[in-house]
Amino acid sequence: MAKKRTTVSLIRHGQASFGQKNYDQLSPLGMQQLEHVGAHLAQREEQIDVILRGNLARHEQSVDALLRGYGSSAGSSPDVVEVPEWNEFDHRAVMHAYAQDHAELRAWLANPKPIDTGSRAETQQVMQIFREAVVRWQSGQHDADYAESWPQFLARVDQAWQTTQESIAMHQNVLVLTSGGPISLSVMASLQLPAESLISLNKRLVNGGFTRFLVASEQSSRELLSLNEQQHFGGKFQHLLTYI
After folding, report:
1. For the residues 170-177, what does the mean pLDDT come to?
2. Which InterPro entries does this entry report, sorted A to Z (predicted)?
3. Which residues, listed in sequence order, are joined to residue 224 by a DSSP beta bridge?
């Protein structure tokens, strides 16, 4: 008997509220992005058997927007299963730990100002600080400073895939609505990339982009099929293309 092979599509949430006190909310553009993702899936007649999502607000809101765009053309709505292990790591906690030795960053974190995501220079400056904070987190020299250390994050995303494996046994087309960190880590594990690849991958992932894996139900190995699909944000929909 041939082994059952399931396509698992990881979708990054829509644009959140970067630079705001409450990052964990979709922006109006983020809502539009995921509604368009749903419409794109419906137009392509891609069957959705089940959606797994993290339990962050931006994950829930993204699934709701996606399903609005997808509509009822495929009949009954797919089941939605909450899997907290698919949550993003706490980027603010990582930056707060890094800020212990950077007074200016501590002041900004205490009273954050909105980031102009249209400004390349401003975005690059924030991303450089974030990169340095993540390198500190990954180093293993300061694990006591974090509620979730780098090894614990690795273990959590591995557990997310184990939970997903249970859905793979029952479904053919599985969507996972998650964040850039777990997507990047999944790609790294599949391609056996080093830890320093995290930020390099993460900064290239578009909101509402697809990264697909082919998974056999009988084994935990994953074959990367595509990375960061974004053709649905081309042409007249190019205004929906964002990275943070």
Report:
1. 92
2. His_Pase_superF_clade-1, His_PPase_superfam
3. 213
Position 100 scores a pLDDT of: 84
Least confident of 29-43, 45-59, 165-179, 181-195: 165-179
The one-letter amino acid at 150:
W
**pTM: predicted TM-score of the whole model, two decimal places:** 0.90
Enumerate residues 6+ apart whose C-beta is below 8 A from 203: 127, 243
Radius of gyration of the chain (CA): 18
What is the overall mean pLDDT for the chain?
Answer: 89
Phi-psi region of 56 (alpha: psi -120 to 50; beta: other; left: phi over 0): beta
Residue 161 token pair: 């895939």
Q: Residues 91-108: pLDDT tens digits?
A: 889 989 999 888 777 776
Give the tokens for residue 222.
């994953």
The Cα 239–Cα 136 span in angstroms is 35
User: Class of 5-88+157-240 per CATH?
Assistant: alpha beta
Report the 3 state secondary structure along the chain: CCCCEEEEEEEECCCECCCCCCCCCECHHHHHHHHHHHHHHHHCCCCCCEEEECCCHHHHHHHHHHHHHHCCCCCCCCEEEECHHHCCCCHHHHHHHHHHHCHHHHHHHHCCCCCCCCCHHHHHHHHHHHHHHHHHHHCCCCHHHCCCCHHHHHHHHHHHHHHHHHHHCCCCEEEEEECHHHHHHHHHHHHCCCCCHHHHHHCCCCCCCEEEEEEECCCCCEEEEEEEECHHHCHHHHHHCCCC
